[in-house]
Amino acid sequence: MTAKIRMGPRQRGHSKTSKAQTRFISSGHIFASRAEPLKQLFIDAHLPPDFHEQLNAAVGDIEKAIMNQVFKEGIRIAATSAVNEACTAALSALDRLNPLMENLLRSDAPTLRLWQSARHIERYTASRRTESGAAASEPPITTNDAVAAQA
Questions:
Q1: Alpha helices in 36-50 (DSSP H)
Q2: Do the beta carbons of residue 125 and residue 118 sit within 8 Å?
Q3: Distance CA 3, CA 43 (A)
Q4: What distance in Å separates the CA atoms of residue 76 and residue 35, rounded to the nearest whole number?
Q5: Cα 114 vs. chain centroid, distance in angstroms?
Q6: Residue 136 host element (H or E)
Q7: What is the pLDDT of residues 82-109, one digit of tens each?
Q8: pTM of the model
Q9: How far apart are the C-alpha atoms of 139 and 60, rounded to whole Å?
C-alpha cells in the first residue's frame, strides 16, 4: 500500500518533498513485502524474530506522521484564512461605523478624541530597505500618527 499525500495550496510548490516522502514510504512497503519470504535469514542474522512486524509498524508510523503533518498544515491554512476574513469584516464594519460616530460626536470634542483613540488600528507599511540592504529605522506609520498630525 502506497501513501497518497494530498498537498494543500502552499505545498504544491514543494512537490519534490512530497514526492520524496511518497517514494520513501513506498520503498518501506516494498522492502517489507520482499523481506517477508526471507524472514528466517534476517532472524539468523541476529534480528529479532518480530523484526518484520516492527518494520511494518515503523513504515505505518512514518506514513501516519506525514499524513498528520499534511492535515495539520491544511488546518493551519484554513485557520489563517478564517482570521483574515474576520479581520476584513471587522475593518469593513469600522469603516461603516466611523463616519457615524464622527458625525454623532462632532459637538463633543473630548469624546470624539476618545473615539478616535479607541478605534485606532495600527496599519504597518512594508519595511523599507536602505541602499545597503538594511531595514530603515523609521517607525511604522499608524493611524494615531495621522490623528496627532491633525491636532
A1: 39-44
A2: no
A3: 28
A4: 39
A5: 36
A6: none
A7: 999 998 898 888 889 889 989 998 899 9
A8: 0.48
A9: 51
What does DSSP assign to residue 123? -
CA–CA dist 129, 105 (Å, integer): 41
Q: Which amino acid, 3? A: A
Q: Give the three cell numbers for residue 68.
A: 498528520
Q: Which residue has the cell 454623532?
A: 104
> Residue 129's beta-bridge partner residues?
135
Which is nearest to 61 in space by CA: 15, 87, 25, 89? 25
Angle at 121 between CA 119 and CA 122, to 5 degrees: 150
Angle between helices 109-118 and 143-150 (to 10 degrees): 160
Q: What are all long-range contacts of 13-19, with beta carbons under 8 Å and residues at least 24 apart?
A: none
Cα 136 from chain centre? 28
Q: Are 33 and 26 in contact (CB under 8 A)?
A: no
